[in-house]
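Hey,
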Amino acid sequence: MVRSNKQCRAASNPMLKALLSALLVAMAMSTSTVAGSNVARADDELQSLTKSARAAAKSLVSDLKKELKTALKDGGPVHAIGVCKITAPAIAATTSEDSSLQVNRTALRVRNPGNAPDTFERQVMENFLAEAKGGTELGTLEHAEIIKTDDGNRTFRYMKPIPMAAKPCLACHGSNLKPDVTQAIKKAYPEDQATGFKPGELRGAFTISKPL
């Protein structure tokens, strides 16, 4: 590059060189601060959404347990199957409306085909299984992130494992089901895959999302 005499004199002036250096540093710091601010805002957004998702999952499981315990008390496991088929989706819909999130359940082995996992959900649940195999308790795990969809939009995704509980889940999801329970499941869910679980295993997961 060819420089003019003025540029050469400017470059050789110590005070001017110091001023130019300070200006470059200030510009770099300003850029770094803006980038850091954007990262901070992204972290705040994710933390806020995750907090809301945790609360929604907690609300869903609380309401589901309440309904199932009542159904089991009133008519046993067979009655609970019918109640769960109708009530569980309704509770999920109410929780979604109250939280402004899309709240649902999924599993690697589903009872209701409508709850089959998408690619993201399957991968996260497989990661849960891998961590559990490594000794981590399922109940302590969760996954939250903001992803970009194929159309370029951003979506918040959150998942929380549902460990298999001894009560009341074994009655309808365990290995030794009563004949009337097996018959009721086949009638309500002809494509059922959700039996044969042991306490502590990954029964499924809460899956929560929100387009941003």
